[in-house]
Amino acid sequence: MANYLCDFGNIVVTNSKKKPFIITNVGKLPVSFQFDKKFLSSFGMVIEPDKVNKMLPGEWKEFNAELKTRRVRDAERKLDKTLDIFVKNGPRYTIQFIANLAVPELKMSHDSLEFGKVIVGQRKTFQIRFENDKEVTCDWSYSYRKVNSF
Q: In this predicted model, what pLDDT tens digit does every residue of 112-124 receive, in sequence order?
């Protein structure tokens, strides 16, 4: 029995990631197999094409595995699933799918910005630090909203 690993790395929850892989028939007879779609869909995986009929010796086929993270409650966990592939009239193979599911998080060095008294016509500067200690990138933006003065 041969074991293979498909590592998706870090994935932002509610996003998806694709990984191509190739299967080659190194035997002397044609092979047929199919992926268990019900098992794969139970953790958000799709593999296309999902079956192979009579792959000839020396022939290879490219497959695309896509992992779709759906729920925020999946956050902060390691995905580790093993798929058995049963070759018709042949051996069993396994592919282990692993991924780290994470939610980006932007933290500020201060909970609020308190400038205290500011004299009209002068400015005060206040420094804050933003930090993301997660394994995935955190996209953010700044927007300016003018406050009515009295």
A: 777 788 888 888 8
Quote the Cα angle for 39-47-11, to 5°. 85
Note if the bond before 49 is cis, omega within 30 degrees. yes
**pTM score:** 0.72
Report how far residue 115's alpha carbon sits from residue 128's, in angstroms, rounded to the nearest whole number.
12
Written as one string, the DSSP assignment of 23-34 is EE--SSS-EEEE
Which CATH superfamily does the domain covering 2-102 fall into? Immunoglobulins (2.60.40.10)
pLDDT, one tens digit per residue, over 3-61 is: 899 999 998 888 899 999 999 998 899 999 999 999 999 888 999 999 999 999 999 99
Amino acid at 98: I
Closest CA to 33 of 113, 87, 69: 87
